[in-house]
Design a protein that fits this description.
Blueprint lengths: L2 E4 L19 E10 L2 E11 L4 E5 L6 H7 L8 E5 L1 E4 L2 E2 L5 H7 L4 E4 L3 H4 L6 H13 L6 H18 L5 H5 L8 H14 L4 E5 L7 H16 L3 E5 L3 H7 L2 E6 L2 E7 H6 L4 H8 L19 H5 L13 E11 L5 E12 L4 E5 L6 H9 L6 E6 L2 E2 L5 H5 L5 E4 L3 H4 L6 H9 L6 H14 L16 H13 L5 E5 L7 H18 L2 E5 L3 H7 L2 E6 L2 E7 H6 L4 H9 L11
Parallel strand pairs: 1-5, 4-10, 4-11, 8-9, 9-10, 15-20, 15-21, 18-19, 19-20
Antiparallel strand pairs: 2-3, 2-5, 2-6, 6-7, 11-12, 13-14, 13-16, 16-17, 21-22
Length: about 575
C-alpha cells in the first residue's frame, strides 16, 4: 500500500478539462519517495507546461522513473510519498483513490513503458488493445456495431502507421509475442497516443529502435507538443533529449543536480555529473580514444593485435554471397539475407547497421554457425565454417563467441557467475585449479572482483551482467566475437565503460569484432568498416569514415539524417 503525506489536502475529480492558462499542466514541489525507510527521491521539484517537453535524465537508480510514476500513481506498494505538492492542471494528485486514478490513467495522463512485452496484454491482439483505447477516448456508442468496428479498425491501422509499423493491417491482428521488440514498443506508443492524453509520460520510448523509426517516434511526440499536450521524456540518450525537450532535469542519487533550458544544460553544463554524461557519448569525434579517460588507442593496438600483422594472418572471417530465406505465413518464401559478402581481419571491427528486419541478426546467426545459409560460404580463420556439420563445427566452436543485448535471458538463472564462466571454459578443456585461476583472470579482465564469483545474474546490475557476458565470450579465447546490440539498453556512462572495456580487450588480444547496433554514434566510435543492410541486402560497405563522411547510397544518407545529435546544427558524420 502506498502511504502519502502532504501539506496539500484532498483530491478533486479530474474528469473535466484540466487546462488552465494560469497553472502549469503538471507540477511537483519537494517530492520525496521512500521504500522501506530508504529514500530514493529527495526533494525533487519541477513543472511541465502545456505544449512543452521536460526531459528527465540520469543513470539507472537515479530516481527518474520513480519520480515520473508518482504522476500516474504507479510508485508501487510500500512506497511512502511526501511532497509539498504534486498537481495536474492545478489539482492535487496526492491521496487519490484507485477509482480516481483509473479515470485519469490513459485518458488524462498517458504512460509509455520501456518494456512493452510486460505492458501489452499477451492474450489480445495489439489491434484490440489499441482499438479499445481509441474507442474509450472517442466514446463510440452510436450507429450499427459493424460500422463502429470498421471505424475503430481503420483508426488502429492509421495509428500503427503513424508510429512506423510496417504492414499495419497485418500487425494489428498479431499478439505481442509475435512481434519484435521494436514493433511491440511502437504498438505500445500507438495505444498511449490513441486517447490523446493531455500529459504523456514516455519512459525510454526509443531504446533499441532504429534511427529512422526513432526519428518517426520523436516526430509523433513532437506533434503531441504542437497540439498543446505536455510530454515528460525519460531517457539516457542525450541526443534524443536535445531533439525533443524544452527543458532538462538531470538526476543523480534521487536528486536533481541540474535543471534548465535544454540548450543551456547540454551545451554549457554547470555540474560535473552532467559534464561526465556528455563526455561519455560516443561519436565521430571520440573514435580512437577511450570515452571514460580520453586516452588514445594506438593504431597498432586497434588494427593488428599484439605481436602480429594483418599480412601474416588469415582473415578472421570471410563471408561470400550468403543467402537465407524463411517460409512466411502464406507459405511463400521470404528472403531474409540476399547475397551478403564481407571480410574481417584480426583485430578489426566491422559495424553492421540497418533497420529491424534488414537481416542483421540472421547474418549474425549464419556467421556464428547457428543458422545454415541456403547458399554462399563462411570461412573462419581461413577454414571452412558454414559448410561443416554441427558435429564438425563443435571442435572449433571456441573460435567464435557472442555477446547478446540481454545477457540475463542467455544466462541460466540457477547458475552463479563462477559456474557460467566455468561452463564456457570446458571447450578448452580447463578443469579444477586451472579453471579456477582462469575465472579470476576473466573477472579481472572485465573489471569485476572475485567477490562476484558466487553472485547470481538476478543480483547484478545491467552493467555488471554485461561484463559477465563479455567475460563468458572471452573465456574460450575466441578469434571472433559477435556483439549483437551489446550496449543499447545501458545508460550512457555504463555504455562508455563497456565500450572502453571492449576496446582494451581488443587491443590486448587482437580479437576481431562483428558489432551490430542501431546506434550510429556507437558504430562510428567502434567500427573500422561498415556494412549497411536493407531488406536483406548490403546497400553500402566500406571504410567507416568514408561511409559516414561521404555515403554513396540514399538509404545510408537517410539513416544518417535521422540520427539526433546533441547539437542539431552539427552533422552526425
Amino acid at each position: 500500500m502506498t502511504t502519502v503525506a502532504s501539506t496539500t489536502s484532498g483530491a478533486a475529480d479530474l474528469a473535466d478539462d484540466v487546462r488552465d492558462a494560469d497553472q502549469p499542466l503538471a507540477a511537483v514541489r519537494d517530492l520525496r519517495v521512500s521504500f522501506g525507510g530508504r529514500e530514493v527521491v529527495r526533494g525533487v521539484s519541477f513543472e511541465v507546461n502545456a505544449g512543452e517537453c521536460l526531459a528527465i535524465v540520469g543513470e539507472s537508480g537515479s530516481g527518474k522513473s520513480v519520480t515520473a510514476r508518482t504522476l500516474i500513481g504507479l510508485t508501487g506498494d510500500g512506497a511512502r510519498i511526501d511532497a509539498d505538492a504534486v498537481t495536474f492542471g492545478g489539482r492535487s494528485l496526492l491521496g487519490l483513490t484507485d477509482r480516481q486514478w483509473r479515470q485519469i490513467r490513459g485518458r488524462e495522463i498517458g504512460f509509455v513503458l520501456q518494456d512493452a512485452l510486460v505492458s501489452l496484454d499477451q492474450l489480445r491482439t495489439v489491434g484490440s488493445e489499441i482499438g479499445e483505447a481509441w474507442s474509450a477516448h472517442h466514446g463510440l456508442r452510436l450507429g450499427p456495431a459493424a460500422l463502429r468496428r470498421a471505424e475503430r479498425d481503420e483508426k488502429v491501422v492509421e495509428l500503427l502507421g503513424l508510429v512506423g509499423v510496417p504492414e499495419p493491417r497485418v500487425r494489428a491482428g498479431q499478439r505481442p509475442h509475435e512481434l519484435s521488440g521494436g514493433l511491440r514498443q511502437r504498438a505500445l506508443i500507438a495505444s498511449a497516443i490513441a486517447q490523446d492524453p493531455k500529459l504523456l509520460i514516455a519512459d525510454e520510448p526509443t531504446t533499441a529502435l532504429d534511427a529512422t523509426v526513432q526519428a518517426q517516434i520523436l516526430d509523433v511526440l513532437g506533434e503531441a507538443k504542437e497540439r498543446g499536450n505536455g510530454v515528460i521524456l525519460i531517457s539516457h540518450d542525450l541526443a534524443v533529449v536535445a531533439r525533443l525537450a524544452d527543458r532538462v532535469a538531470v538526476m543523480r542519487r534521487g536528486e536533481i543536480v541540474e535543471y534548465g533550458p535544454t540548450a543551456e544544460v547540454l551545451r554549457a553544463p554547470e555540474h560535473d555529473y552532467t559534464r561526465s554524461l556528455l563526455a561519455s557519448i560516443p561519436s565521430r569525434t571520440s573514435k580512437g580514444s577511450l570515452l571514460t579517460t580520453g586516452e588514445t588507442l594506438t593504431v597498432a593496438d586497434t588494427e593488428s593485435g599484439p605481436g602480429s600483422s594483418a599480412e601474416d594472418q588469415p582473415l578472421a572471417l570471410r563471408v561470400r554471397d550468403v543467402r537465407k530465406s524463411f517460409a512466411a505465413r502464406d507459405k511463400t518464401e521470404r528472403a531474409a539475407v540476399r547475397g551478403i559478402s564481407f571480410d574481417l581481419a584480426p583485430g578489426r571491427t566491422l559495424g553492421i547497421v540497418g533497420e529491424s528486419g534488414s537481416g542483421k541478426t540472421t547474418t549474425a546467426r549464419i556467421v556464428l554457425g547457428l543458422t545454415c545459409p541456403d547458399a554462399g560460404t563462411v570461412e573462419l580463420n581461413g577454414r571452412a565454417w558454414s559448410a561443416l556439420s554441427d558435429k564438425e563445427r563443435r571442435a572449433n566452436r571456441h573460435q567464435i563467441s557472442v555477446i547478446y543485448q540481454d545477457p540475463l535471458s542467455s544466462f541460466d538463472p540457477r547458475w552463479d557467475v563462477e559456474r557460467i564462466l566455468r561452463d564456457s571454459l570446458r571447450s578448452r578443456g580447463l578443469r579444477g585449479g586451472a579453471a579456477d585461476e582462469r575465472v579470476s583472470e576473466l573477472l579481472d579482465h572485465v573489471g569485476l572482483s572475485d567477490a562476484f564469483r558466487h553472485r547470481h545474474p538476478l543480483k547484478l546490475s545491467g552493467g555488471q551482467r554485461q561484463r559477465v557476458a563479455i567475460a563468458r565470450a572471452l573465456a574460450p579465447e575466441p578469434s571472433v566475437i559477435v556483439c549483437d546490440e551489446p550496449v543499447s539498453a545501458l545508460d550512457v556512462s555504463i555504455q562508455a565503460r563497456i565500450l572502453d572495456l571492449l576496446a582494451r580487450l581488443q587491443a590486448e588480444t587482437g580479437v576481431a569484432l562483428v558489432f551490430i547496433s542501431h546506434d550510429l554514434g556507437v558504430i562510428h566510435h567502434v567500427a573500422d568498416d561498415i556494412l549497411v543492410m536493407r531488406d536483406g541486402e548490403a546497400v553500402e560497405y566500406g571504410d567507416a569514415d568514408k561511409v559516414f563522411g561521404d555515403p554513396d547510397h540514399p538509404y545510408t544518407r537517410e539513416l544518417l539524417a535521422a540520427v539526433p545529435t546533441i547539437d542539431e546544427s552539427e552533422s552526425v558524420a
